[in-house]
Every structure is written in structure tokens, then in C-alpha cells.
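User: Here's a chain of 695 residues. Predict its fold as C-alpha cells.
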Amino acid sequence: MLKKVLVIVESPAKARAISRLLGRRYIVKASLGHVRDLPKSQLGVDVENGFTPKYVTIRGKGEVIKELRETARQAEKVLLGPDPDREGEAIAWHLQNLLNLPSDSKCRIEFHEVTKKALEEAVKQPHPVNMNRVYAQQARRVLDRLVGYSLSPLLWRKIRSGLSAGRVQSVAVRLICEREEEIKRFQPEEYWTLTAVLKSGESVFEAKLLQRAGKKADLKREEDVRQVLQELKDAFFTVSKVTKKKKKRNPLPPFTTSTLQQEASEKLNFSVQKTMAVAQQLYEGLDLGEAGSVGLITYMRTDSTRVAEVAQMEARDFIKENFGTEYLPAKPPQYHSKGKAQDAHEAIRPTSVWRRPQDVRKFLTEDQFKLYKLIWERYLASQMSPALLEVTTVDVTAASCVFRASGSVISFPGFLQLAGEVEEKEVILPPLSEGEVLELQELVPKQHFTQPPPRFTEASLVKLLEEKGIGRPSTYAPIIETIQARGYVVKEDKYFYPTELGFVVVDLLKQYFPKIIDVEFTASMEEKLDQVEEGVLSWRQVVSDFYVPFKKELEHAESEITKIEVEEEKSEKHCPKCGRQLVIKKGRYGKFLACPGFPECRYTEQYLEKTGVPCPKCGAQVVVRKTKKGKKFYGCINYPDCDFVSWDEPVGKTCSQCGHFLVYRGRGKKRKIVCPECGACINESELSPEVVEVK
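Assistant: Prediction complete.
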């Protein structure tokens, strides 16, 4: 009887897909992630003996290991195929030790997509476990343990229990806190713009004031605008310059982990965690009916934009057949990764561009389809020709003022031809010639105020962390999850707000552990971990260089820091269990009321934020409520006696046309008042006395 080959991967879904693709000679088992780790009950690092880690079997993995050992004994060969990154390499190394495989055994296989071709090539080219990669993972794990298990108890004693600190998560909280402080310090400045509505023949277009008296127009006050309007009272508007240029618009590179997370957040409203979970499903393999189970995308943890030559050739064939040769660039495009990309993996792309989203939609969930479509379109567009535009710039002179209008026409769509790509907005100007006198329709002055920097969303936070070299593609999702779970930040309407607790912890770390919270130091540590993987640095030396000064800071902080009380806003309500005055806390899904007697008394209830708007049904107060998933809506405070609810914030006024209550829709500059019943749209300044208050 022919002995079989045992292949071990992390997840059951991946194991099932690989089993079908490799055939009967192979037995594919799942380790269910890591099988060994540092113990939870103790530090697990021998700081006196070269920072040697003490690994133990993860609780609940005993049966898994037992089954893998029994299967390995009966197998002809054992191949270890966890993910091709540091974590995957560490899993392979731990499995190698638990299964008693020789240290120089060629047991490690790597593949970047779950397809038959990739797997067949991988099993033909096994190699020893990459120990430099293991050491890099081990260094990160030991560093995180030394920081976490040293700082967290300090925070428990000096602030409150349940807190944590970490090399990367604390820097992320610092960035959010500093952005909030920047917003609070911001002083808006007034400025004005002036737009001329001009007519040439039958065509009307707009031009904005650019210069005045040979200098850049700087309208800071309404008085400045009045002076310009007075100057232009009897002026002729004459075309003084017409410039036409050809412009090339290149497609964006295929996705890396962080750019996928950013795009999925902005276009699909996916959280970083959700994006990675759905991408994992697409990578590990899905049942496509007669085609069997196959991975739809390449490995999703990567900071490289590199694409394999065979994949580029396949994409070029697809583009030629479906769009034509004019949509093919002369050579396959090469994209350069930002910063110090590992380049061990390709960019995130479909495993076959011929597997179009619409063809596999019936086999996917809605979330899987949306993310696959996003990846497929981004990749295919990246392999297409640039779009060509003709840009026209027109200067119009009136008195001492110069107005400018710009327009563009797509002369060749290139990658924009691909369905799903963002369309280039065409602003077409009428044919104008120098010296032509235009008819002034009106001058439109508009007041503006400078805006503070925006708060971070998940997408913008990930972008900044990547730009500053903090963390790695695999760490962004758990970082964002942790800082919310610890109560350091809350997310409201997609934006992160730091809590009082977040400010207190950041201030403490800034004062006593400046390196832990320092952006540049954290980024330099990531570079050192990369050098460990490259075999340039010793992992023990990297840990030692960090720990020796850190230990002194820890001892100093322990003796200097006194108990810090975090101020909490008190509510009007009292705890029904113990009578204490309830306090307002901020949690993962926003504010809630809690008893200050925790942990003796654990009473909590939903915090109802009052809007000051009377209920359209009963006249009581409208309050802000949250669904179980944290989505905001508006309802009557008298629920369940009154069942008024609205996804949109009520204005407190009724529509003059149909009498229905009005609501706010949109945010910021796009915020407007609309009637959800008849669709009337009303500017806030246009609310007339006839639009009566809700009784």
C-alpha cells in the first residue's frame, strides 16, 4: 500500500480546498492556527538567559497535536504549509518540533495562492524552515510580551484594572490623541472666493478669481470682496490666454494589504477586521460548483505591489480579447512599492483574471462578491493602458483681476473603460479664443472658513501607520480592535475619538516611557525586525538593546507614579442595585451608563443622548439610540409606549409642503435638510416661519 504525504496548513477551509486540488496521495490536515505560544499565566521569557522563550501547548490544542502526530507516523513524508509570512514560519517551526522532524528537514512548502498549479509546484520544492524568519517573529513576540506584561500591571495599579499597553497599539492611540488636541487648538480663519458665471455664444461656464493686481487673490473679509466687486462693476471680461495640454492618467497599482483595507473602508464601508476576514475566505478557497474548491485571490498579507510575470501575461491576454490591443501598454507595467516593502509576496490579485466577478457571484456571499470585485477590477485596471485627457485652461481678464476656468475631455479612456472604475468627470468648456469678450451673467461671492484636520477613520489611520512604518500588514486589524476594546478610543460615524482614559494613558507613557510611545523609535524597531529576518541582526541582541533601558524606566515609573484618578462624567440617574450615582463611560460602541462601584457592582445600561428635539408623535424628547451592532438611530425616549424611530436625525420642524417632520441628511458641507415624505430639500437658511415647530 502506497504511503501518503501529510500536508499541514492552518485552517480547515484551506485544508479542504488543498485536499481537493492535490488529490488522493495527499492527506491535508489543519493545525487551527498556532499550536504553541508563551504561557498566559506568567512572563514566559527568561530575561537572565538570553531572553529564551518558554513555549507551552496552547490550551485546547492537545487533541489536534495528537491527531497530527498519529497521522505523521503513518505518512511517508510531512510537508508544512502555513501562510508564507513570519507567523506562518513560526507555526511551521513549532509543528516541526512537536512532530520530531529533523531540524534540517526539507519539510516547508510555500504557496501564495490556493490553485492546483501553485500547489503542485510547492510540493515539488520543499525547503528547510527559514529560521531567520522564525527569529524575527520570535523577537516580536518576546518584545510584545516584555512590554505588555510589564506595563499592563503598572497601568492596573496606577489607573485601573483591565488596561494594556503595547509597542504599536500605544503609538496608534497617541496619534489619535494628538490629532484630537490639534483639532481643539484649531482656530478657523475666514476667507472668500469669487466666481464669475460667463457666457460665450449659447454656452455658460464658471471661472474663479485667481489673481488681482498681479498677485494671488487673497480675499480674507467681506470688505475685500466688496472692493473687488466695485472694481469689476463696469469691467469687460476678455479671454487673455487659452492653454491646451495632453495629460496622462495612470492606473493605480494592485492592492497591498493596507491599500485594500483603505479602499474597502471607503468604498464598501468594511472595517479593517471585516476586510481581512473576508479576504482570508477568498484566499483559502471557496466551492465554485463544477470547478471545485479554489482560492480566488493570492495571499492577502503583503506590502508589495509586485506581480508575477505569468499573471501579467494572463491579464494581457484577457485585456486583448475583451478590450482590444489599444488598451494594452507596450510593456507589462512595473509598480514600485512604498518604503521598505518585504516583497516576499505578490500584490493581492485574482488567482485567475478569467474568473470574472459576475461569473462566480452565485457561489459567493454578498460581502465576498463585493471584495472580490474590488480586487479583480483594481488588478485588471493596473495592467491596462493609461487614460489620455485633453486639459484646457482659460484665463479671463477683467480690470486688474484674472479669473481661471479649467476643463478636460477624455480623448482615450484606457483603464477607465473598465466597468467599476471611477469615471473621470468631464468639464467641457466652449471653444474660446484669445481676445474674445465674454458676457458676464453674475458674480458669486462665497464665504468659507478653514477646516481643522479630520479625525482618523480606520482607513486614514492604517494609511498613516503604513506611511510611518509602524506595524506590519498583519497587525493593523488587531491594533484597531484592541484600542477600542480597551476603551482608549471610540468610533462614532466612522471617526475615532480618544476617551479621557486614552489621554491619561498616553500622557503617562509619554512622561515615563518616551521610547515606547515614540513614532520614530517604533518604526526603527520594525526595521530591526526586518534585519533579523534578513540575517543581519541577532534577535537576542535586538531584544537586549530594548530591554535594558526599558527596565530602568519601569523601575523609575513604579516608584514615581502615584494613583491616577480618571475623571468620569456623572449622570442624573442612580444605580437601581446599590444606589450610587451612575457615570457616563465610553466603550467600543459609544457612551453607556455604568455603576462606579465596579467590580463589586456591575450594573450598566444604555446611555440615551438627548437631541433637544420633540417627538413628532407624542411631543416627548427624541434621543439617540444604538442597534446591537452599534449603528446610530433616533427614537422617542418614551419607547415602548411611543414607537417613533428614524435613521435620520429629526430637525424639530415640519415640511411646509406636506406637514411631515424634516430630517438632516449628509455630513459636513453636504449636510442638508430634507423631507423624507415628499422629498423636498430645504436649505437651513431658508426655513421660513411657516415651517412650524413640532408640537
